[in-house]
Amino acid sequence: MGLLKQGLIILRLNLMSLPQRPWYAVIIVSSMACVVGVLLAMLSETAGMLRASRTDSSSQRALVMPAAAGNEFSNSLTLNDVATIISAPGIARQPNGSPAADAEILFWAPPYAGYLGGSPLLQGLGTAGLSLHPHFVLVSGRLYQTGRQELIIGIQAARAFGLKVGDKALLPSGEWPIVGIFAAGGGLLESRLVGDAATIMTTCKISGFGSVLVQLDDLQAFAAFKQWLTTNPALMVTAERQSDYYLRVADGYSAFFTELAYVVGVIMALGALFGSVKIMHSAASTRAREIATLRAMGYGSLAAALAVLFEMVVLSLTGACCGAAIAWLLFNGKVVSGWNIAVELSVSPRLFLLGLGWALMLAILSSLPTAIRTARLSVANGLRAA
Amino acid sequence: MKYIPLVWSAMTRKPAEAVLVCLAVTAAFALFGTVLGLRATFNSLIDNARNDRLEADPRFPLPNGMRLPLAMRSQIARIDGVTAVASDSLLRGYYQDPHNTGRITMVDEGMRDVGYDFKLTAAQWDRLFATPTGVFLSRKAAQNWNLKEGDVLPLTTPPGARADGATYWRFQVLGVVPDKPTSLNGFILGNYKYFDTSRPLQEQGTTMEFRIAIKDAARADETSLAIDRLFANSGTPTLTIPEKSNAQLTFNSGISAGSATWPVAGAGLFMILLLVANAIAQSVRERIPEFAVLRTLGFQHRTLGTLVFLEAAIPCVIGGIFGTGLAALLSRLPMHHLPENLAHLPAPTISPPVVMTAVGFVILLALASSVIPILTLRRMSVVDALAAG
After folding, report:
1. Residue B211 · residue B88 · CB < 8 Å
2. Are the CB atoms for A93 and A221 separated by under 8 Å?
3. pLDDT by residue (tens digit) across B6-28?
4. Residue A265, Cβ neighbours under 10 Å: how many?
5. What pTM was computed for the model?
6. Predicted ipTM?
7. Does A206 touch chain B (CB under 8 A)?
């Protein structure tokens, strides 16, 4: 206990002397801020994707898709397939007694000109669709009416692609007006246009559904549900928990950028590591006398070494917080868009912790050489140092 | 030249610290080279895509899947400015192991005129269209699957891909051809006619997309719109995109690698700038009496400034060379030996412009980090400094 106490006293002494050596502190704090800031900024797109796929999905819901496609985009499930799928065991019931299942379609409906700016995906929901998206709330305008050629748009899609109530989307049967804007708890649905599946299919001559979303009785019902579907000779489908499927899609989309972020992060961390070792090395040489004096007064060598480590940890974590704060200010909540997706960037608490972890690891690694040198310092030589 | 020993002795005063500074600068320039090189790779993919080539895909999901009737070809060919039309369909399957997936691009005669990026000779095109089961592999594809001319390429496909109900296609490797700059993982070309007649009847006579050559690249957008308008009210509306726009869309979506380049490279350099500047400032501060002696001996301000600049420049140059070298080494790594998730990263291109930019920033870094110490030396009072020493 004495060791820790001594270490903390020396740490306090060290921190109080920081104003006399401002550059030392500035360099360590700013290099950690650079490493953590860049890492978090680059990971914010992945974090945003993951958050969107997590918020509006549940492992108690399952998505049934054609086996050959393995995604929601094939629109090749026939009405017969859907009828068979919703008779599978394990599907929860709606209050009116019908199965809590919804056959949906999903495709991209780009405008004739201006598609280079990107435009949202269009999702057609069935009658049970909205109840299977529990976070759904209308923000402005009104809901689409079954049988009428109209759509509503998610709040993120509206922001990312500059669409509003009254704008039109191009479909095979002509231009459909957008009549409302909705929120869905930050989920994936928010980055899409939504309309009535039956109306879209009949007017646009689309003959198949892309997927069937079902609410299961409980978490354990999935295995039997999937088994029943995949072994049914009348069907060629696969089932995935909604949460797993969304994560798989998000991973696939953001994999490249995530890899790039870690490659960049590792190279920057190496640079910061060498830099910190250098700067601590030169600081320790000039402060050898100070340390020797403390040792002469009876402070232990381990305590002095510990103080070196503590000081580096304090400075690094300060830097990491600065970096995270800058990344948060610049990127958190910003919506970026590509072809047909809109992502709200997120510098999440998880990312923040990741940044702190990196800084802590770098602090320990970079202070080790100096800490060891401090511990082995000979008091007599140290006192003689200029 | 005669000052080299002076600079050298200043640098080697604290060898461990000098080496650490060099290493840190190396890391910064490795980062710099990697992100700039990556951008160069993306830019070359965009630059190599041409604006006088269009791709027409189904605009909306179609009842028969995403397929366009071949009959559209003659209608597209009649549009003003269109010089050639080719159909292009993918056959997806796996080779030997279900995880070893790949696809064969099935092309027809039109691809001779449209497919500028497939570097096949006239004789090779002739062989492809004369051999029903013949395929040409690009070098990367041949390397990935370890195939050579004369080999048999058996491809397993999901049920339903063939009219005879089989799940197995037997192709003959006719030869290995150069890769195309717009494709990162190589390609395999097959004979569309054979593919089409082997498919189930309801799929025959359709294609996944058309590739179109036009006379005037400046009218790419206009011609694309003309094609889309022509089919707007048909059963199969199209979405036609010039290849260059397509490449731009692909590589510039989200917070893309392109838009992240300068912030990342800048953060890396800023980190190093502070470090190098501090190292030089400290070194000069500790040697003020030395500089005073040099002044007394008749050294000009300019000479002292040069000495300090050289002292800053040497670690920057060393780090710049090694760092850019490391980035170049990274670009030559055989990617398929890396862990699977890293193998997706396209290799950075350390092109001459990237190297020149790195050289520019090495000089800038040395200048910026030595400017304050040089100014300090100019204001130095020789008498006080000598007295202090």
Report:
1. yes
2. no
3. 888 888 888 888 999 999 999 99
4. 22
5. 0.85
6. 0.85
7. yes
